[in-house]
């Protein structure tokens, strides 16, 4: 597939205990379905060729001979099939019996991975029949051919080195010293697990959390195939709980008690990039001692990307999670400001209130910090500075919000000051250019700074992460403050934070905050239209923030190339924005992101709240004169 996506499948076939012919027929049928669907990696359950619950039948030569014959049929059936398959079977090696995963591709056995940790407690008694994996890799004769054997095997695609796979089996994952830890350190991007985990109350949640956290801990994909209906129910029931995870996120999972094929796509290119970014030594190349790497070749398959990319990557989908996350973010912002106020012994906090979203959020955060410090909100000095573009709606909303939160209001018109400044520098007041706009922003900042000095306070910055990314701020104007509480909050999240606080506060505050939420985003630096409404609409000029925040997340957080960002944006926003619009605004994003780095190189202090921040002292270091040509040329 494209852009590093590997289509994977966790398959649970119908089986009968000890009926090898029946089981292999169903396994082969599922392999054919996987191949037809463009699956590049298919994983089947533990010991599925004969059934995990065979008990002492594992000591019967008749069963083991049938397994050999069945495996031969499975191997033959994969001739010409472009899917790497892992299937579970008992295998004899060195006169002992091992619980194994057999890796098969295009009519060949690539390797046989043996289980390391054998459960021998409760309902499990694997040591009665099987031996743990040997410490060293060797070779086994299986289906008449030699194949690598052991627990330390990595399978890597010659034509896509990021597509690297290693295997563990069921209990291996539950063990404190899981083989998957060493597999990841040795370079495996995807871990597959062939399992037969019986179902008991609460176990599905535990299993899901374990797999999710293992994939996060190892920065890996994790494909977990579980045995289902067909295993013996003499003492246990098996649910076929298949899971596909990627770096801490469940991409897909099956319903319990429904044997099925569970499919998704793992982004191995992203995983490789994230490991390089972390660079803590965990994935250093000296951790592959004893490993044997097996090369294979699989051609890219055409197939639909089934996984979903959230439209609002900075905002949780789940309403419950959103409320919890929102409260946490507001607490982080307020706690950062609380510490800064205490450290500087500031008597006041000075905020420029525009009637827009960002200044409303900064004000709400400051009110929280003052409450925590047991300071009177009257010492929050909110300054409304109407200028050439200020409309009646935003001016009134500013006044009402200040009143609702009990802060001190100051109204300082800037029109006369800016006109005098125009006269001083010889600028024509009728020339509505960048000087016309920026002179207003810098005048406002001058007022706020001097007022903070006068009252023994500090200026609270209002600019958000999206504006920093695009450079949508006046250098040494609204770009500057004494502490920026919104600096790592993107615009799409600002809306949710303000709405949350509106609902929490209720009353007059809720009414005015909802009106602010419904006001078009604008710096209000150009005169209103003839009807007195906002004429300068930010998103008409620079593009929709919902797109820019999407671009920002995948370009900065994951380092995706522009063409890949464009690909997933086209998929995500299909029917909402045309491909031409997405291409246009993506180009604009990269142009502005590169050109405006000089502003980010000297931004004020401000607290980090999420995984993306552009502070030059924290997560993002970039030369101000870097050239965007390579990125722009990559956009279709």
List keywords for this structure.
636 residues, alpha/beta, Nitrilase/N-carbamoyl-D-aminoacid amidohydrolase, Rossmann fold, 2 domains, 8-stranded mixed sheet, 7-stranded mixed sheet, 20 helices, 20 strands, elongated
Can you describe what's shown?
- Helices cover 39% and strands 18% of the residues.
- It is of the alpha/beta class and 636 residues long.
- It has two domains: 5-296, Carbon-nitrogen hydrolase (Nitrilase/N-carbamoyl-D-aminoacid amidohydrolase, 4-Layer Sandwich), CATH 3.60.110.10; 319-538, HUPs (Rossmann fold, 3-Layer(aba) Sandwich), CATH 3.40.50.
- The chain has an eight-stranded mixed sheet. Strands 13-12-11-10-9-8-15 form a seven-stranded mixed sheet.
- The longest helix is centred in the middle third of the chain and has 26 residues, at 319-344.
- The model has no long low-confidence stretch (mean pLDDT 94).
């Amino acid at each position: 597939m494209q852009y590093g996506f590997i289509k994977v499948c966790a398959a649970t076939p119908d089986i009968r205990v000890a009926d090898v012919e029946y089981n292999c027929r169903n396994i082969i049928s599922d392999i054919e379905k996987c191949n037809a669907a463009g699956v590049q990696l298919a994983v089947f359950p533990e010991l599925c060729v004969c059934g995990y619950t065979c008990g002492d039948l594992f000591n019967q030569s008749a069963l083991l001979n049938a397994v050999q014959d069945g495996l031969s049929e499975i191997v033959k059936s994969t001739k010409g099939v472009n899917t790497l398959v892992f299937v579970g079977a008992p295998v004899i090696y060195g006169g002992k019996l091992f619980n194994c995963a057999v890796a098969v591709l295009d009519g060949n056995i690539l390797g046989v991975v043996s289980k390391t940790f054998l459960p021998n407690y409760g309902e499990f008694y694997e040591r009665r029949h099987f031996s743990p994996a040997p410490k060293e890799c060797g070779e086994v004769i299986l289906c008449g051919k030699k194949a690598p054997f052991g627990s330390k095997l990595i399978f890597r695609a010659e034509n896509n080195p990021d597509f690297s796979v290693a295997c563990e089996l069921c209990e291996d994952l539950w063990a404190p010293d899981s083989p998957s830890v060493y597999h990841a350190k040795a370079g495996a991007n995807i871990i597959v697990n062939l399992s037969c985990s019986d179902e008991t109350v609460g176990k599905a949640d535990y299993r899901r959390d374990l797999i999710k956290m293992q994939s996060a801990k190892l920065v890996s994909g994790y494909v977990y195939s579980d045995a289902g209906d067909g295993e013996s129910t003499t003492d246990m029931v098996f649910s076929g709980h298949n899971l596909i995870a990627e770096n801490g996120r469940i991409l897909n999972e099956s319903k319990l008690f429904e044997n099925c094929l569970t499919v998704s796509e793992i982004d191995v290119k992203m995983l490789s990039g994230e490991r390089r970014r972390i660079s803590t030594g965990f994935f250093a190349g000296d951790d592959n001692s004893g490993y044997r790497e097996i090369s294979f070749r699989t051609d890219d398959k055409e197939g639909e990307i089934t996984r979903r990319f959230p439209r609002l990557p900075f905002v949780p989908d789940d309403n419950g999670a959103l409320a919890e996350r929102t409260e946490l973010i507001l607490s982080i912002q307020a706690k950062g400001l609380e510490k800064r106020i205490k450290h500087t012994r500031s008597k006041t906090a000075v905020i420029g209130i525009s009637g827009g979203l960002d200044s409303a959020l900064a004000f709400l955060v400051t009110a929280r910090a003052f409450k925590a410090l047991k300071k009177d909100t009257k010492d929050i000095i909110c300054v409304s500075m109407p200028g050439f573009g200020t409309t009646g709606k935003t001016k009134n909303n500013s006044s009402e919000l200040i009143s609702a939160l009990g802060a001190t209001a100051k109204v300082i018109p800037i029109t006369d000051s800016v006109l005098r400044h125009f006269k001083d520098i010889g600028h024509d007041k009728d020339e509505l250019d960048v000087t016309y706009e920026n002179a207003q922003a810098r005048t406002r900042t001058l007022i706020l700074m001097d007022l903070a000095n006068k009252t023994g306070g500090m200026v609270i910055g209002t600019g958000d992460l999206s504006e920093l990314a695009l450079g949508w701020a006046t250098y040494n104007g609204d770009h500057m403050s004494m502490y920026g509480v919104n600096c790592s909050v993107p615009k799409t999240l600002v809306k949710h934070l303000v709405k949350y606080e509106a609902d929490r506060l209720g009353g007059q505050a809720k009414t005015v905050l909802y009106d602010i939420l419904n006001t078009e985003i604008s710096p209000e630096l150009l005169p209103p239209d003839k009807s007195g409404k906002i004429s300068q609409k930010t998103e008409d000029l620079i593009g929709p923030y919902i797109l820019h925040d999407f671009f920002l997340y995948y370009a900065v957080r994951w380092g995706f190339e522009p063409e890949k960002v464009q690909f997933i944006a086209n998929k995500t926003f299909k029917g909402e924005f045309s491909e031409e619009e997405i291409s246009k605004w993506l180009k604009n994003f990269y142009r502005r992101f590169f050109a405006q780095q000089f502003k980010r190189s000297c931004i004020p202090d401000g607290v980090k709240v999420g995984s993306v921040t552009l502070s030059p002292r924290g997560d993002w270091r970039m030369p101000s004169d870097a050239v965007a040509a390579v990125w722009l040329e990559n956009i279709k």
